[in-house]
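Hi R.,

Here's the chain you asked about this morning:
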Amino acid sequence: MTPFGLKMREWRRQKNLTQQQQAEFLGVSKAYISALETGARGQPSPVVVDQICVWLGLIWDDAEELKRLANLSHPKPSIDVRSQTAEAVYLANLLAQNINRLSASECQQFIDEIERLTAS
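And here is the predicted structure, written out as tokens:
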């Protein structure tokens, strides 16, 4: 599951809407909607995210949140560290090799710390 898929499913269910209804509105298959929700498909295009926001009736902050989550929901991200420091290369590789060993709460701790360090 991706953060985008989780949030999309949450909002869809809150509005008592089905995957089939969403698929029909977007002109895609129900299987595609399911794959977006579970993370079996990569990031949706910005156009699809905008259409989903319209379908869910999201405005302002909620729409921006879904767009932000879509940008952070690639199920197989890659990190280009070619021009970075040795420490950045080490960090990227260490995380890639150990992400499957971290619990959800441990991941959240890393997220919180990275967001704190990169807040401007």
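One quick note: The chain has a mean pLDDT of 94.

Cheers,
M.
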